[in-house]
Amino acid sequence: MADKSRDCAFISQDQIHRDVQDYYGRELQKSEDLKTNACITVSKPVSKVVRDALQHVHEEVVSRYYGCGLIIPEYLVSCRVLDLGSGSGRDCYVLSQLVGERGYVTGIDMTKEQVEVAKKHIAYHMEKFGYQKPNVEFLQGYMEKLGDVGLADESYDIVVSNCVINLAPDKRAVLREAYRVLKPGGEMYFSDIYANQRLSETVRKHRVLWGECLAGALFWEDLYSIAKEVGFSPPCLVTTSPITIGSKELEDIVGDCSFVSATFRLFKVPGSSRTGPGQVIYNGGIVGHEQELVFDANFTFKEGAVVDVDAEMAAILQSSRFAEKFMIRSGGTNAAAPQGCCQGKMKKKICDPFLLLLQQQSAPAPACSAARTCGPQGCC
Predict the structure, then answer these.
(1) What DSSP assignment string belongs to 229-261?
(2) 63 exposed, middle or buried (CB, 10 Å; 0-12, 13-18, 19+)?
(3) 191 touches 163 (CB < 8 A)
(4) How distant, in Å, are the alpha carbons of 50, 166, 168, 218, 226 from that of 173?
C-alpha cells in the first residue's frame, strides 16, 4: 500500500502552505463560507460533558471553527494534550476544561490570523473555567516541524488533530513528529478526510479543493502503511461520516472519487507491551462512559463484561492511560478474534471507513447477549 501521492511533488510545499494560510486566514471568515461539508462534519453524537464544555467557549472562537469530526477522546484528566492545526482554539478550550487545571493543552497552527483569535481569548476562558493560571497555550508553526517551536521528545500524553492533516503536503512528517512528541503508551486521536482512491493530478492541483480539505485527502489504505512505517500500532477506526460537495463545478472536477470524514486512533505501543491476545474486563469509572466505553468501531466494552481482544488491542490497553481502568489477562477461548461474542461467528475487524459507512446506512445488526458486546458490524 505505497503512497503514490507522496508529498505532492508537482506543487511546492511552500505554495500549498501559502494557499491554505490565505484561504483560512483571509477568505474564510466563518464556517458558512465553506463550499463543502468536509470541514464541518460531526461524526458521532457529542456527550453531555463535551456539550457542557462547548457552552463555555467564546462565540468568536466557535464561529471560526472548521473541523470534520470529534477529537475529544476519553479519560483526559491531568493529561498533556497537543492539538495539531488548532485554528481559532475551539477544541483546545474544550480540552482545557476536560484535562483540568493540572493538565495542559498546546495548540499549534500555521495561520497567523487563527492563532491571534485563539490567543486573544485565553484570559476570558481561564476566568470562565475558574483556573488560577492558564493551562493552554497557542503557537504559530508547522505540524511537520514541531521541533522548530520547541516541542520536546515524549512530552505529551495525547496528540489530537481535527481535519488538518489533509492540508499538510507531507503526511509522513506529521505522523513522525506526532510519534516523536508522544510519551510511550501515548495516543494520537484525530479526524480527517479520506478518499476511496488515490487522487488525480487535476484534483491535487486545485486551490479551492485544497482549502476545502479534499485535494490533500489521503487514500485511506495509505494511512495504515504510513502509520506502520512511523512506528504506530495499526490504526483503530472509530467513526465515519459522508462528505457532500455543494458545488457542481467542484463535483465535476472530483469525478468518481468519494470522500468520508473518519476518526482514527493510533497508539505508541512500547515493544515490551506487545504480547498475545487476551481477555479484558472494563472496570468502569471513566466520566461520561461509566457503563460502556465505545473504544472504536470494533470494540465496545461494557462495565464488568468479559471481552476477548486480539493482540493489538491487548497491547494498547496494557500500555496506555486506559490500563488502570481494565483488568487484562492473557489467553481466552476466542482471544484471537476481534470481538468477544457469538462464538464461531466473528466477522473481520473493520478497517475501511467506506465499508463502515455502508454498514451504518444499512439495517442494524442483531444484538448479542448481555454478557458480550459487538462492534457496529454485528456478529450474530
Answers:
(1) HHTPPPPEEEEEEE--B--HHHHHHHTT--EEE
(2) middle
(3) yes
(4) 31, 12, 9, 14, 10
Pairing outcome for strands 156-162 and 80-84: parallel
What is the tens place of the pLDDT at every residue in 116-155? Answer: 999 999 999 999 999 999 999 999 999 999 999 999 999 9
> Which tens digit of pLDDT belongs to each residue from 21-60?
564 445 444 444 444 444 555 455 678 888 899 999 999 9
Q: Is beta strand 136-140 parallel, antiparallel or unpaired with respect to 300-302?
A: unpaired
Angle at 274 between CA 268 and CA 279, to 5 degrees: 110
| Residue indicated by cell numbers 479534499 | 214
Instruction: Dump strand ranges (E) for the chain.
Output: 80-84, 104-109, 136-140, 156-162, 182-195, 218-219, 236-242, 259-267, 278-282, 292-294, 300-302, 306-309, 326-330
List CB contacts of 63: < 8 A, sequence separation 6 or more. Answer: 30, 31, 88
The partner residues of 194 in beta bridges, in order of sequence, read 218, 260
Do 94 and 54 meet the contact criterion of CB atoms below 8 Å apart? yes
Give CA–CA dist 331/276, Å, rounded: 8
Distance, in Å, from the CA atom of 159 to the CA atom of 266, rounded to the nearest integer, reads: 10
